[in-house]
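agent> fetching stored inputs for the nicotinamide-adenine-dinucleotide docking request
agent> found them:
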Amino acid sequence: MNINDRANLKDGNTMPWLGLGVYLLGDGSEAERTIAWAVEAGYRLIDTASFYKNEAGVGMGIRACGLPREELFLTTKLWNNEQGYENAIIACENSLRRLKTDYLDLYLIHWPGQDKARRLKTWEALLELKSQGKVKSVGVSNFKIHHLDEIMAAFGEAPVVDQVEMHPFYPQEELRAYAKEKGIVLTAWGPLFHGHIRDAKGIDAIGAHYGKTGAQAVLRWHLQNGVAIIPKSSKKERLIENADIFDFELNDADMRALGSLNNGTSYGGDPDQFTMGF
Ligand code: NAD
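agent> prediction call returned; pasting tokens
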């Protein structure tokens, strides 16, 4: 596996396994500068959201980075108050306008919420946006198995991507097995413990077996589990560190050791209970 390898999505498109998360990056020069460093380090996927309020800066970064748009993979998400059929169509237009791009590579529903009918209408809008070519692939985020089942029951096909919280404290093994069976590619958000990496004792020692850091070992663990990653950093040296994970392979014992850090800690909480912004 190398940095240019891509996951095969069920709709025929492909997605880089490694991307840059930009939550909490400042809109404007911080986003622009970080994207330039990331692209230089080999990242080709940028993961933003309307909620992050930095789509304009991300768009600037993409235009300024020197690569043609089609060599980059751009993901954004519609926020909870943008759910519903009409709202979702407008939300996508607004994101495209802020990003100053003609299309998205991947458009996600950020959180499922508690209103099934509204959620399914939102999904219907995403399918429409895909058929119009405004979005190449459509997916979801923070959807649990029952939410994915619901989409399959209503539309006959699963989302191609589900972006969910995942790290060794919260490995989501059941969802991973389900996604594998259904051909859904999972992307881990918070792949480095959502900023709580210092709480993860023992990861540095595992990284040291390979001359790598604990963060690199954890990112590698995700990839070897078949999960895409979008670690966030605004520091050049960490961007480089987090991308420098394609020249080693964790052995089975170290894969198990990282998996055994599972302690049920979720920083995002249960998506069924997440009601912010709805
Ligand atoms: P993360 O696990 O990527 O952790 C990021 C933090 O870890 C950084 O702010 C930095 O403090 C630290 N860090 C980064 N590289 C490091 C390194 N090499 N060594 C030590 N510390 C390091 O957490 P995240 O930002 O929550 O998740 C990544 C991305 O996922 C976000 O930026 C965003 O794009 C996405 N996300 C999505 C959702 C969702 O609901 N879909 C929720 C949260 C985040």
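agent> quick read of the result: The beta strands are 6-8, 14-16, 20-21, 45-47, 73-78, 104-109, 135-141, 161-165, 185-189, 228-229.
agent> awaiting further instructions
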